[in-house]
Design a protein that fits this description.
Helix content is 35%, strand content 25%. It is an alpha+beta fold. It folds into two domains: 139 residues, 60s Ribosomal Protein L30, Chain: A, CATH 3.30.1330; 154 residues, PurM-like C-terminal domain (Phosphoribosyl-aminoimidazole Synthetase, Chain A, domain 2), CATH 3.90.650.10. The strands form two sheets. A six-stranded mixed beta sheet has the order 1-2-3-6-4-5, covered by helices on one side. Strand 1 and strand 2 form a beta hairpin. Helix 4 packs across helix 6 and helix 7 packs antiparallel against helix 11. The two termini are 16 Å apart. 43% of the residues are buried. The chain binds adenosine-5'-diphosphate (ADP) and magnesium ion (MG). Adenosine-5'-diphosphate binds next to helix 1.
Length: 329
């Protein structure tokens, strides 16, 4: 079958069916990170690949930002399981025309975030490539019970951290030619695209206090990643359109695009999680400690009601375009 028909997730399911396993694998393929136990406890492991021309364009991003981002996207997957990152393995495929200063700049971005996050760079591999390829694997400490995608129940609330759609709107604006002054105005959106923030504090607190029943990080757009939670949990979800947390810059620049980037834009790296309604007060309090806003945007409904976005009157809005699937584009 052509990969364009199978899609990224169909392909992953196919890989999963024949994946070898062994004792100690508590969560394998299919969540934000794997969870493995060993003699001295248990660890979370995740990997992400960034490829020039597919995930980034060096005309629009600095190598410093790229270094930061290539680690941040992995930290975000550890956060989505409620873990604490500890070790990173970084492999680079580097085009011949690069010089050592460019590589230094990349490592300044990577190492800066690693130090801030108490992550040690412990290895990797280096080779020549036709375009820049960045492969990062992060290993973290698991909480007693990592939060999986499949634990949501009908009636649970649905929350997100931070604001939605900024990174995708930033990327769209980045592609348009703008004056220097305009660039300044859209800087908050561009920053979200270039240097995303992994919501580590929120993730660990939600896991440690057993508040999240299911969790994922939003890398492919709210609706698509909510789809992963709903599929794994066998629920549907109703999202209240007017509750979507939008930043001031988003409201200012989204214009006729409305909420499309908030619903379907990729690379927010916010956490999407479900929680029991009886824990609302605790979640409200957690915001101050986590240092990020937590917004209740909907609730889990029976699976046959699928995922809907509702207007103020409770009417379903037409569902906008889908999220990211690298093989289906
Ligand atoms: P995320 O968006 O959270 O990084 P992905 O959608 O990339 O997650 O991956 C979903 C799951 O599939 C993860 O468990 C990931 O480790 C696994 N996965 C992705 N690609 C492969 C592959 N080529 N071989 C084995 N597992 C894979
Ligand atoms: Mg993820």
């Amino acid at each position: 079958m052509k990969l364009s028909r199978l899609g990224e997730f169909g392909l992953i399911e196919r890989i999963c069916r024949s994946a070898p396993t062994r004792r100690g694998v508590r969560v394998g393929i299919g969540d934000d990170a794997a969870w493995v136990s060993h003699g001295s406890g248990s660890s979370l492991i995740t990997a992400d690949l960034l490829i020039e021309g597919i995930h980034f364009d060096l005309n629009w991003t600095s190598l410093f930002a790229l270094g930061h981002k290539s680690l941040a996207v992995n930290l975000s997957d550890i956060a989505a399981m409620g873990g604490t990152p500890a070790y990173a393995v970084l492999s680079l495929g580097i085009p011949r025309h690069f010089d050592s200063q460019q590589i230094d700049e990349f490592y300044r971005g990577f190492n800066g975030l690693a130090k801030k996050s108490a992550v040690a760079l412990i290895g990797g591999d280096t080779n020549i490539a036709k375009s820049l390829i960045i492969s990062v694997c992060v290993i973290g400490h698991a909480p007693r019970r990592p939060v999986r995608r499949g634990g949501a129940k009908v009636g649970d609330d649905v929350y997100v951290t931070g604001t939605l759609g900024d990174a995708a709107l930033g990327l769209k604006l980045l592609r348009q030619k703008r004056s220097r002054q305009k660039r300044k105005l859209i800087a908050p959106l561009l920053a979200r695209h270039h240097q995303p923030t992994a919501r580590l504090a929120a993730g660990t607190l939600l896991a440690r206090r057993h508040l999240a029943t299911a969790m994922i990080d939003i890398s492919d757009g709210l609706l698509q990643d909510l789809g992963h939670i709903c599929k794994a949990s066998n629920t549907g979800a109703a999202i209240w359109h007017e509750q979507l947390p939008l930043s001031p810059a988003y409201r200012k620049f989204a214009a006729k695009d409305g909420s499309v980037w908030a619903l379907c834009g990729g690379e927010d790296y916010e956490l999407l999680f479900c929680a029991r309604p009886r824990d609302r007060a605790q979640i409200e309090k957690l915001q101050a400690v986590a240092g990020v806003k937590l917004t209740r945007i909907g609730s889990c409904v029976p699976a046959d009601r699928r995922i809907t976005v509702l207007d103020r009157g409770g009417n379903a809005l037409p569902r906008p375009i889908k999220g990211h699937d690298h093989f289906k584009k």
